[in-house]
Amino acid sequence: MFPKLAEDLAELPALLEETRAYAERILTGLDARPVATGPVEHPPAALPEDGTGLRGALRTFASRWEPGFSASAGPRYLGFVTGGTTPAALAGDWLTAALDQNAHGAVGSSATALEREAVSWLGALFGLDRPGAFVTGATMSNLVGLATGREWLGSLSGGSVAEDGVTTPIRVLSGTPHSSIAKAMSVLGLGRRNLVPVATLPDREAVDVAALERELAAGPAIVVANAGTVNTVDFDDLRAIAALKSRYEFWLHVDAAFGGFAAVSPDFAPLLDGWAEADSVCVDLHKWLNVPYDSAVQFTRRPDLQLRVFENVSSYLGAPADTPDFMHLTPETSRRLRALAAWFALAAYGRAGYREIVERNVFCAKEMGARLDRGSRWRLLAPVRLNVVCFTLAADATTERVKEALDAVARSGEAFLTPTVHHGTPAVRAAFSNWRTTAADVDRICTALGA
Ligand SMILES: *Cc1c(COP(=O)(O)O)cnc(C)c1O
User: Fold this and answer.
1) How many beta carbons lie within 10 A of that of residue 412, not counting itself?
2) Is residue 261 domain-resident?
3) Cα(375)–Cα(311) distance, integer angstroms
4) Would you say residue 32 lies in a domain?
5) Can you tell me which residues the record assigns to a coiled coil (predicted)?
6) Which residues line the pocket of ligand 1, CB cutoff 6 A?
7) Residue 389: helix, strand or coil by DSSP?
8) pLDDT at position 322, please?
9) Residue 110 covered by a domain
C-alpha cells in the first residue's frame, strides 16, 4: 500500500477525531464567519506528487481555502433559496460516505430499501402517496418529470419518444417557470423555444387559468404548474388546473421545489390544494428539508413510463424487476445514497419538527416584510405569501443602486441577499429556509439593510 495511505489507515480513529473537531469549530464559528465572502484568488498550486496524507491535506485546506468559504449554512444567508444542514442530516451525510453504498439497485444491500422508506416518508409529509426517487436537485427532478411527460405525449399516438426520438414538437405551457425548465427542455431535445409562456393574473406570477385553457385547446401539451415562484412565492391554482384534465389532454408537472413545504403546515397547505392530481411533482430537499447538497425528490404517477425513458439494461446489470431498481428510473446509474441524510432528518425531527421550521421561517419573512414596510428606505413589491420577501429601494430603484446596497450588506458580513428583477423592476429577494434563523436574525438583517 502507498505509505501515506497506510499511515492514514493505521491512524484512522485519530484522524477522524481531528476532522470531527475541525467540523465542530466550523459549525460553532458559523455566527462569526462572514455570511458571504468574495472568491479568494490563489496562484494555482501544482498537483502534489506524493501528497501529504490526510493531516497535511486538512492543514492546507484550512489555511488556503476554508477562509474563503461563506456561512451559507448559517441563519442569515438569504440568497437564492438556501437551506442549511440540521445535526441529523449532517450525521446522515457523514454516514453516507462512511458506508459508501451504491444505491443503483437492490443487489447485496438494503440501501435501496432505505431509499424507498425515505421516499414514502416524504410522500406522507407532503400528502403525496406515490412512487418516487432521489435525484440531485430540483433541476434534475424537473427533468425527470418532463421526460416522463414527453414519453406520455409520444404514447398518445402509439409511439415512444424513448425509442424513436421526438418526431413532433412538444409544447410546454407555464406561467412563471423556473429557469431550470428551459434547461431541462434543452437537454431533453424538446427545445427551449417550445416553452410557451402563458399569461399570468394581473400583478401576480400565478398563471391565468383561462389563458392556459386557450393554449390547451390547441392540442396536447405538458403543463408546468408552479407551486412557489422564486420572486414572490406565488402559487398557480392547482385545483383549477387539475380540473382542466377532464376536458383536455395534458401532462401536469408541478414544480414545488420549495413551495411543497407549505404542505407541512395547516396554515399554508391550502396553497397546494389540488397538487395530488399532478402526474409528476418536484420537491427540492437541499432547500427546506435542510439536508446538505445535493438532494431532491421526484414523484411520479407513471413509473411505467419513467422506466421506458431511463431503463438501463445490460447483461451485467440485468433487466428491471417488477419493482425496478432506481438506476432504471433516474438519470444516474451509480447513485449516492442521498436518501440517508433525509432519512436521518425525518427520523430525528418528524412532521412536527418540519412544521416548526417552516412556520418559524415564514414568521421571520413576514416580520421582515412588516419592518421594511414601516421604514422609508425600501418598499415591498408583493405581499409576503410564504418565506420570501421581494422588495426594492423606495426611491430611484436602478439595477446599480440595488446592487450597491446589497454589496454593502454583503461586505458587512451580516447577511447575504440576492438581486432579481420583478415585473421589470430591479429588486431584492430575501428567502428564509434555514432551520437556525430566528427573530433576532431578522433584526440583524434589517439593521444591515438600513430598514
Ligand atoms: C431552486 C429551484 C429549482 C432548481 O433547483 P436546483 O436544486 O438548484 O436544481 C427549480 N425550481 C424552483 C421553483 C426552484 O426554487
Assistant:
1) 16
2) yes
3) 57
4) no
5) none
6) 81, 137-139, 178, 180, 228, 230, 255, 257-258, 284, 296
7) strand
8) 86
9) yes
The grid coordinates of residue 231 equal 420572486
| Weakly modelled stretches of the chain, pLDDT under 70 | none
Closest ligand 1 atom to residue 294 Cα is 7
Distance CA 383, CA 426 (A): 17
Q: Give the pLDDT confidence of 388-413 residue by residue, as tens digits.
A: 999 999 999 999 999 999 999 999 99
d(CA 170, CA 149): 10
Handedness of CA 93, 99, 100, 101 (dihedral sign): negative
Are the C-beta atoms of 451 and 417 separated by less than 8 Å? no
Q: Are 169 and 191 in contact (CB under 8 A)?
A: yes
- Please give the grid coordinates belonging to residue 109: 444491500
Domain assignment of residue 327, given as a range: 89-345
CA of 375 to the centre of ligand 1 (A): 32
The CA distance from 433 to 445, in Å, is 15
Please state whether the predicted TM-score (pTM) of the whole model is above 0.85.
yes
- Give the domain CATH number at 276: 3.40.640.10
H or E stretch including 402? helix 399-412
Q: How many CB atoms lie within 10 A of CB 323?
A: 11
How is residue 336 written as a grid cell? 449516492
How many structural domains are present in the chain? 1
For residue 308, give the C-alpha cell: 421506458
CA 251 to chain centre: 22
The C-alpha atoms of residue 377 and residue 379 are separated, in whole angstroms, by 7
CA of 273 to the centre of ligand 1 (A): 21
Distance CA(16)–CA(18), nearest Å, equals 5
Q: Determine the length of the chain.
A: 451
Residue 377 lies in a domain: no
Strands (E), 334-433: 378-380, 388-393, 418-422, 425-431
Burial class of residue 375 in the structure, from the number of CB atoms within 10 Å of its CB (0-12 exposed, 13-18 middle, 19+ buried): middle
